[in-house]
Every structure is written in structure tokens, then in C-alpha cells.
Write a structure and sequence with these properties.
A hairpin with a 2-residue loop joins β7 and β8. The chain has 15 helices and 23 strands. The radius of gyration is 24 Å and the shape is globular. The structure holds flavin-adenine dinucleotide and 2-acetamido-2-deoxy-beta-D-glucopyranose (6 copies). One 2-acetamido-2-deoxy-beta-D-glucopyranose (NAG) binds next to loops.
């Protein structure tokens, strides 16, 4: 009943309030619920769209997605690059469906289901069987080290599992590597470890939880642990990977159920309502808000909460890390590089322009002349602070080191997105730092004052960092909220008011 159309956005709150059931009665199962409570879904990425679909499927239609960008999709972002006549749409955000097993009795990745439903063009990408290796002196065959690093990584997840069973504390993944005897010393050793670890988590083993990173690997990639398999489908669809979620939204979303170009600056909440202020001064009121903004946005105060979020929520937000994963795209007029899918470069500095991907291949974009290199973590933040020209110079120097006899032409395109600086994201995806506390994670998801709900990639315990994590959180949290809205008793997501150590420190 508090729903107001766009023309009525500046509705007199007192008028609306006077007509509504006292909100404080809502948690009381005997009380009469509001006839048609309004929900604001803040953010139109995968979590926001799937939450909206979940409401729709339950017959709840009084919701509005509020999105700052001019399209839905969130971190599914693409751009057309390239010289005139050789344009190519590339994904500088998410690009893979991670885990695509369909049969064998295991679960199917819900992103894969949507990709198939909406007919996206994908290609299977081979991360381990199509690799050429380099160091600062050019081609250098260290494929044996590369193959071994995969086994070492698997052992890391197995030993982490044993720690969980014995209830041993978490350690850094670096400690884990050392304890299983893996102590990379040479640039090649480090590059191989980087490929297995940092290229996935966007942070180093030292910065990552041993247990959570192992769980993260298992739940997505290991069918024995309920995962979706280790094959990865890369979108090469020229409508953009985002097409799968935009097409899904188009199947149910009505024009009055989403607002684009609408940046939230303030979220005021109490135990009976939520009031959201946009950059242009518009005020939206609702009974509930479901916030799906990235962890980075929450960490960085890009949106102000009034009152300030409770201590337990702030501690949870600041306990998780928003990591950065940066793809740097180049197009060349002719090729001089490897003909495998992947290239690995071992710089003396770990993480310096290490992972290269060749798009000029059958099954990808033959004739495109496009390759890209990925950097992560602190190195991503470093290059974001540099002008494009300087980054381009470094990248070309690395290519010259990899191909000492080649005359490297000027690239016709050089492009990367600064995810860490982007005020709508402040990074690429979340990563779990060492000293893992499940309670912090629970608090990241927990409802505040019964009115303010949270969902997104980062709130997923099993799939943080992934599209399917955002999907499942949109689904699960919206299902809980739908119960409240329908007056079936509220399944609030509980908080742990203080996360304490089992034993006091011994000094
Ligand atoms: C470079 C990169 C590569 C990735 N690769 C993969 C991959 O290959 N496979 C995979 O599974 N996952 C990948 N991911 C992760 C995946 O993209 C995310 O997990 C997922 O898209 C997160 O969805 P979400 O709905 O939780 O959040 P978002 O997509 O961040 O949605 C939140 C929305 O809120 C909006 N918003 C933010 N602030 C405001 C504001 N103040 N007012 C209004 N709106 C606001 C944003 O614009 C955004 O649309 C990658 C991510 C990046 C960045
Ligand atoms: C959003 O803004 C863009 C760029 O300013 C504009 O082209 C587009 O029409 C706007 N879209 C909506 C739905 O307001
Ligand atoms: C990960 O999977 C492996 C192999 O299936 C298993 O042995 C290990 O216990 C799992 N690790 C965790 C942290 O669950
Ligand atoms: C792409 O690869 C083909 C061979 O597979 C080669 O003939 C062509 O020159 C390459 N294109 C560019 C632009 O590098
Ligand atoms: C899918 O992409 C491939 C490789 O670029 C292309 O050859 C093919 O035509 C595309 N298929 C469709 C249906 O768009
Ligand atoms: C580069 O050229 C030199 C001299 O011809 C040759 O010895 C060397 O093997 C070449 N290196 C590569 C990587 O092709
Ligand atoms: C946190 O949980 C407690 C019960 O455990 C509850 O009373 C309190 O309202 C919750 N805090 C908020 C801000 O929702």
C-alpha cells in the first residue's frame, strides 16, 4: 500500500504512514500484516534480479529494483573495443560459468541453467591443458612445475578439510602451503602458485583463509563436495554475458518495478520502515529494503546508513575483504604470441602481469588479434593509480621480455577497468581473509532491525566471489523476506551480537 509510482516519489510520508498497520506488530504472528508491503531491492545485479524473480514467483509484486547504472547486470559488464572494422565485445567483468556439469547426478550451476535457457554463445575454456610458459628471458618450459602446482593446490584443500574435521583453527593459506612442504622460491614456482591460487581468489595465499579458500574451491569445482565440476564455460556472446540476466529479468519484470540511473546515497531505517534517498534528492519509502550493494560499497561508506549500522554488522563488513581482479585487453594488428589458450609469465616480482589469454583462436575470436592479461590484489590497486599510458608501457615491456625476437607492434586498443576505484563496486569480488569466523559471515547476511536485509555474492558462505553465490543469496534471502511480507511469521536472519574467542588470550 505504500507503493508510489514514480510521479509520486516525493509522497507525504505521514499520509502514507497513517494508512498502514503499525510496523512493530509485524513480528508478532498474531498481528494483522500490512496488506501489500513494499520492498525496495537496492542494486540490480544478479542477486537483485533473482530476488525480484523470487518475489514475483510468490505473487509479491510491490517491489522496485533501484539501480545506479543504466542497465541491469551489476558486475556483468562488457565493452566493445578494437580498431574500426575489427571491433569485438569483451567482458571486463564476470566471464565464466564456473562448473558446468549437467549430469552425473550432481547439481547444476544455476547460472549455467540460465545461460542455456537464454541461448548464450559460450565456449569451453581450458585452464590447464593449453598452456605456454615464459619468464623474463623469453620462452621457458616449466610445465612440469605447473602441473605439480595443481596437485599441490589439491593437497592444500585436502589438508584444510582434515583441519575442519579435527576442529583445528584456521591459518593463512600461506601457512598451509608451507606446512604441506610447498615453499616457492623461483619466479617460475611463484607464477605457478599464483595461477592456482591468486588468479582465483584475487589475493595472495598470505592474505587468504586456508579453510575458506578450500571450501570455496570444493563447493564450486568438486562434484564430490557438492560442486558443479571443473569445466568452465566462457561467454563469447556478442550481446554480452549480461544477456542471460537481462533476458531473465525481461521475462517477468514490469517497467514500474525497476528504476535505472538511480544512485542511492542514504538509507534511513527504523524498526517500522525504510527511507532511501537518491543522489537527485528523491526519497523512496518502503516497508523493507534488501541491500545487494557490493561488500566494497558497504565498506567504503559510499552509502550512508542512518542510524549507523550496529557494531556487529560493521565488524562483519570490515572483516571480509573486497579483492580486485583486473583484465587488461590489447588488440594488435598482427600476432606474435603463443597459439595455446593460456600463457604464463614468471616475472621476478610475483604477480606482475602473470596470466595471459589468447582470444585469436578457433572457438574464441579468430582473427580478432585480441589478448588479455590479468592482474589481482595489490597489483591491481597499483596499476589503477597509474595513467593508462604507463601501464601500457609496462605491459609492452613484459611482452618484449616474453618474445625477445619479436617486433612488438603498437596495440590498436589498450583497455582495462578500474574496479577498485569504481564507486559502485570498490573491487571485483569478496575474499575471505585468514582467521575465519563463521559468525562474521552470518552477521554479513543478518537482518538489521527487521527492516533491512542483505544479499549478494559476499553473503554466500559456500560460493562467495561467484555469480552463482549472488544467485543463491538473492534466492534464499528473498525467500525469507517473502515470508515476512506474506505475514507467515518472519524468518529474520539472526545476528551474533558479539563474536568472541572461546578462550581468553594467554599472555
Ligand atoms: C572482473 C571480474 C571478474 C569476475 N569473474 C567472474 C566469473 O568469471 N565467474 C563468476 O562466477 N563470477 C565472476 N565475478 C564475480 C561476479 O561478477 C559477482 O560475484 C556477481 O556479479 C555479484 O553480483 P551481486 O548481485 O552480488 O552484486 P553486483 O553485481 O555488484 O550488484 C549490485 C548492484 O548495485 C549497484 N549499486 C552499487 N551502489 C549503488 C548505489 N549507491 N545506488 C544504486 N545502485 C548501486 C551496482 O551498480 C550493481 O548493479 C567477477 C567479477 C569481476 C568484477
Ligand atoms: C540513463 O542515463 C543514460 C546516460 O545518461 C541515458 O542514456 C539513459 O537514457 C538513461 N536511462 C534511463 C532509463 O533513465
Ligand atoms: C575439499 O575436498 C577434498 C577432496 O574431496 C576433501 O578431502 C577436503 O576435506 C575438502 N576440504 C574442505 C575444507 O572441506
Ligand atoms: C590470428 O591468428 C591467425 C592464425 O590462427 C593469424 O593468421 C592472424 O594473423 C591472427 N590475427 C591477428 C590480428 O593477429
Ligand atoms: C558463437 O561464437 C563463435 C566464435 O566467435 C562464432 O563463430 C559463432 O558464429 C557464434 N554463434 C552464434 C550463434 O552467435
Ligand atoms: C632469438 O634469436 C636468437 C638468435 O637468432 C636465437 O638464438 C634464439 O633462440 C631466439 N629466441 C627465441 C625465443 O626465438
Ligand atoms: C540482533 O539479534 C538480537 C537477538 O539475538 C535481536 O534482539 C536484535 O534485535 C538484533 N539486532 C538488530 C539490530 O536487528
Amino acid at each position: 500500500m505504500r507503493w508510489c509510482l514514480l510521479a509520486l516519489l516525493l509522497v507525504d510520508f505521514h499520509y502514507v504512514h497513517a494508512r498502514s498497520v503499525p510496523r512493530s506488530a509485524l513480528s508478532d504472528e498474531d498481528a494483522e500484516p500490512a496488506a501489500d508491503p513494499k520492498i525496495l531491492i537496492l542494486g540490480g545485479g544478479v542477486a537483485g534480479v533473482i530476488a525480484a524473480r523470487t518475489f514475483y514467483e510468490q505473487g509479491i509484486t510491490n517491489f522496485v529494483i533501484v539501480e545506479a547504472r543504466d542497465e541491469l547486470g551489476g558486475r556483468l559488464q562488457s565493452q566493445t573495443i578494437g580498431a574500426p572494422g575489427k571491433e569485438l565485445l569483451v567482458e571486463y567483468g564476470a566471464n565464466w560459468v564456473q562448473g558446468t556439469q549437467a549430469s552425473e547426478g550432481g547439481p547444476e550451476n544455476p547460472i549455467w541453467s540460465l545461460v542455456k535457457k537464454h541461448g548464450l554463445n559460450t565456449t569451453s575454456s581450458d585452464w590447464f591443458g593449453s598452456m605456454t610458459t615464459y619468464d623474463e628471458n623469453g620462452p621457458a618450459d616449466y610445465l612440469d612445475t605447473f602441473d605439480k602446482s595443481t596437485d599441490v593446490y589439491n593437497e592444500l584443500t585436502v589438508v584444510a578439510g582434515a583441519r575442519v574435521e579435527q576442529q583445528l583453527v584456521d591459518l593463512t593459506a600461506r601457512s598451509g602451503y608451507s606446512l604441506i612442504g610447498s615453499k616457492p622460491m623461483t619466479p617460475a614456482d611463484k607464477a605457478c602458485e599464483y595461477y592456482a591460487f591468486d588468479w582465483e581468489y584475487a589475493q595472495s595465499p598470505l592474505e587468504s583463509s586456508w579453510i575458506a579458500s578450500s571450501w570455496g574451491n570444493n563447493f564450486t569445482y568438486d562434484p564430490d563436495q557438492g560442486g558443479f565440476g571443473d569445466t568452465n564455460a566462457m561467454s563469447i556472446d556478442q550481446r554480452g554475458f549480461k544477456h542471460f540476466i537481462q533476458a531473465e529479468a525481461a521475462d517477468f519484470l514490469q517497467p514500474e518495478q525497476f528504476i535505472l540511473n538511480a544512485t542511492v546515497t542514504n538509507i534511513a531505517y527504523s524498526s517500522d520502515r525504510v527511507e532511501v534517498t537518491l543522489k537527485d534528492g528523491t526519497v523512496l519509502t518502503a516497508d523493507y529494503a534488501l541491500c545487494t550493494f557490493s561488500l566494497g560499497v558497504l565498506q567504503n561508506d559510499d552509502v550512508v546508513f542512518q542510524p549507523a549500522l550496529p557494531d556487529w554488522k560493521q565488524e562483519a563488513i570490515q572483516s571480509m575483504v573486497m579483492a580486485t581482479y583486473t583484465k587488461i585487453f590489447l588488440q594488435f594488428p598482427e600476432d606474435f604470441w603463443f597459439d595455446t589458450q593460456m600463457g604464463l609469465y614468471a616475472d621476478p616480482v610475483r604477480g606482475r602481469y602473470p596470466v595471459w589469454q589468447n582470444m585469436n583462436l578457433t572457438g574464441f575470436f579468430p582473427g580478432s588479434g585480441v589478448i588479455f592479461v590479468t592482474v589481482t590484489g595489490e597489483f591491481s590497486q597499483r596499476i589503477e593509480a597509474l595513467p593508462d599510458k604507463q601501464v601500457q608501457k609496462e605491459v609492452l615491456e613484459v611482452l618484449q621480455a616474453m618474445f625477445p625476437n619479436a617486433t612488438i607492434p603498437e596495440p590498436t586498443t589498450f583497455f582495462f577497468h578500474r574496479w577498485h576505484s569504481d564507486p559502485l563496486f570498490r573491487g571485483s569480488y569478496s575474499n575471505w581473509p585468514p582467521s575465519f569466523f563463521s559468525e562474521h559471515h552470518q552477521n554479513l547476511r543478518a537482518t538489521v532491525d527487521e527492516r533491512l536485509w542483505f544479499a549478494g555474492e559476499a553473503t554466500s558462505q559456500k560460493y562467495f566471489g561467484f555469480l552463482h553465490g549472488a544467485y543463491y543469496e538473492g534466492l534464499d534471502v528473498a525467500n525469507n523476506l517473502a515470508q515476512c511480507v506474506q505475514g507467515n511469521g518472519c524468518a529474520f536472519i539472526a545476528n551474533v551480537t558479539e563474536v568472541t574467542n572461546a578462550y581468553p588470550y594467554v599472555i
